[in-house]
Amino acid sequence: MNNLAEIKATEARKTLGLASHEAVDIFKVLHEIEGVSLAFMEMSEKMSGLFVRKGRAALIVVNSKKTLGHQRFTAAHEYYHYKYSKGAVSRVCPIRKFVEDNPEEREANIFAINFLLPEEGVKYMFFKRTEGKTPDISDIIFLEQYFGVSHQFMLIRLKELNLITEKQEKDFSKDVIKKAREYGYSTQLYKDTSDKDIQVYSPYAELAKKLLDAGRISYGKYEELLIEGGYAHLIFEPEEDTEGEINELEDAYSL
C-alpha cells in the first residue's frame, strides 16, 4: 500500500469485519451501520452524486439515471467524504475519469476502488475462479456480479492489477448485457434505476418515533416532524389492518 486512501479503505473494511475477498453492500453500510440518509433520484447526466452534512446528520444522494454498478461506486466515493472530509458541508461529484485533478476527489476514488475491490480479495477470487486458465468473459461477469460493481469498473481494476491485458480489456468491453443474460446472470447491475420512484433510506422517522415514545415531544410535534421530513404518508395513509376493516364495512353496506 502506497496511498493513504488505500490504507483507509482497508481499515474501513476491517472495522466492518470484512475479509478481503468478501463483497460489501455499500448501501447497507451507509444506511444501517453508519446511519447516513441515502436517497436515489434522477439528476443531471453530468453528476454521479451529492454529499451534504449538517451537524451530525449526513445525506448522500445518488443519481438513479446511472447504472446500479455505477451507483455503488458513487456511494463508496461519497462514503469517503462522509468519513474523512470533515470540513465539508456539501460536495457535488461530477462524472469524470477515475484519475481526478482535484486531490481530494482522487483520494475518494482510490478509497472507493479499494473499499469495493481490495487487491488481495480480487486476486484471490480471480485465481480461484480461473484456476490458472486464461480468463474469458464469463469469468469477468462472475467477478463483477460477485463484488456488485460495474463492468467498466471491474475491467479497469483487473487491468490495473495486471490480471488482464489491454487487449483483453478491450475485447471484454463489448455486449456485456447480452453476455450476462446468456450466462444466466441478472442484468440489473448494468441498468439504471430511474424507472423507480425516488427512494429514500433514512433513520429520520425512527428517531422521531423514539422521541415520541420517550415523551420528549408531543404527538403534534411528531406529526410536524414527519411532514417536514417528507414522511406525511405515515400519518395520513391508513394502516393495512385498518384499511381492510374499512373495505369490509364498505362491502357490507353495499349489499
From TrEMBL:
Which Pfam families does this entry report, sorted A to Z? Answer: Peptidase_M78
Q: List, for all copies, the residue spans of the domain called IrrE N-terminal-like.
A: 34-159
Cited Gene3D superfamilies: 1.10.10.2910
Highest taxon in the source lineage: Bacteria
Q: What is this protein called?
A: IrrE N-terminal-like domain-containing protein
Q: Which organism is it from?
A: Caldicellulosiruptor bescii (strain ATCC BAA-1888 / DSM 6725 / KCTC 15123 / Z-1320) (Anaerocellum thermophilum)
